[in-house]
Amino acid sequence: MSGRKGAGANWPLFAWQAGWVFALRSADLMASPASASSELTRMALEKQRAFADGWFAAGRAAMRGENPAAVMAAAASPARRRVSANLRTLRKG
Predict the structure, then answer these.
(1) What is the pLDDT of residue 8?
(2) Cβ 23 vs Cβ 48: under 8 Å
(3) CA distances from 84 to 30, 31, 37, 47, 65 (A)
(4) What is the four-CA torsion angle of 85, 87, 91, 93, rounded to 10 degrees?
(5) Burial 3-31 (b: 16+ CB within 10 A, else e)
(6) What is the pTM of this model?
(7) What phi and psi, each to the nearest 5 degrees, are found at residue 68?
(8) Cβ atoms within 10 Å of 33's Cβ, excluding its own
(9) For position 16, what pLDDT does the model report?
(10) Distance from CA of residue 14 to its chain's centroid?
(11) 5: pLDDT strictly greater than 60
């Protein structure tokens, strides 16, 4: 199994990271509500982009004849990368 096909297998880690990103972003927004408007817009746009990228990645995987788990992993991969990057950024402060 290649790394790409197995990339979506660690759902508990993804859920944990997403929860932490949500909690840390919420705390930042509560601490600095003046920046909330631009921050919320940026966060919404990055999620839309990750969703669209995942949609196209899933389509490409399906057209290659990948199994359903690989299609799902391809669909989730952009969101997983974004969540992981957000968590790294938030940990640095």
Answers:
(1) 52
(2) no
(3) 22, 23, 23, 13, 28
(4) 70
(5) eebebbeeeeebeebbeebeebeeeeeee
(6) 0.76
(7) -55, -35
(8) 10
(9) 94
(10) 8
(11) no
